[in-house]
Amino acid sequence: MEYVPRDHPRYRSLMEREKIIEGFKNGIVVINGLISQGRGEAFDYIIGEKTIPLAEDSIEVAVAMLLLSNYPVISVNGNAAALVPDEIINLSNIIDAKIEVNLFYRTEERVKKIVDFLKERGAKEVLGLEYVEGIPGLSSERRKVDPRGILKADVVLVMLEDGDRTEALKKIGKRVIAIDLNPFSRTSMAADVSIMDNVTRAIPLMIDKARIMKKLPKEELKKKISNYNNRRRLGEYIIYIKERLENEAKRLMSFP
Ligand code: ATP
């Protein structure tokens, strides 16, 4: 990674790309994961590569939901493990959530690699190796879930997810929080709370918020959730993008 110069204006984004490439070389990320990353980068560019206030508010709603949950589970795939392994472990400890490896392109070898990778970095328990065919209506490998994890969960945090599975998780009664830079994706549309942000910014912010919000009374957490409407939020995200693009175009056109 040393060939990314530190003073490069897009250093952060390039480093994330390097992490995905390294994950690919180590067998954690599949080749399709490189395409997902590229799609995410495009949306990140459009929102200015920063956490916008609307996403920050959704993060607070998500944290409130996780803190109120009886059995929260963080679902991890190859890209998430490559990009934010330590942060996922940290968040799971703070909110007392299980971590489960769940892959679209599942091979037992890759599940084991990711489980071992997270354990080496300090995760006490990582689920995913034991599974039942727990999500009906899905033909992909993602129907396989751990009976002590997603199958039992009331709230599932997903990231870089495919839409089919988010919809299927909803059908079996799970509340789903999605981190997805694309507000048009089926995942964003199907989730109960959609966080339009890069996982590399969203998870650290969730950690900060969880530390503070843990001390709040339950009533206050419930109030935070009760006023939230995800469809409205998605609409607000899209209007934000439209206005940002419009302002950028006007700025360019005002200087010949
Ligand atoms: P859907 O089925 O939900 O419409 P998809 O299966 O076609 O989406 P994928 O290519 O699997 O989408 O990618 C998963 C999603 O993750 C994409 O919507 C992409 O924008 C988003 N994404 C990629 N990288 C990141 C990231 N670093 N942080 C947050 N979201 C990301």
Automatic annotation (TrEMBL):
ATP binds at residues 17, 39, 180-182, 186-187, 198-199. It catalyses: (R)-4-phosphopantoate + beta-alanine + ATP = (R)-4'-phosphopantothenate + AMP + diphosphate + H(+). Pfam families: PPS_PS (PF02006). Its EC number is 6.3.2.36. Gene3D superfamilies: Phosphopantoate/pantothenate synthetase. Pathway: Cofactor biosynthesis; coenzyme A biosynthesis. It comes from the Archaea. GO terms for biological process: coenzyme A biosynthetic process. Keywords: ATP-binding, Coenzyme A biosynthesis, Ligase, Nucleotide-binding. It is an enzyme of class 6 (ligase). GO terms for molecular function: acid-amino acid ligase activity; ATP binding. Homodimer. Belongs to the archaeal phosphopantothenate synthetase family. Catalyzes the condensation of (R)-4-phosphopantoate and beta-alanine to 4'-phosphopantothenate in the CoA biosynthesis pathway. This is 4-phosphopantoate--beta-alanine ligase. It comes from Fervidicoccus fontis.
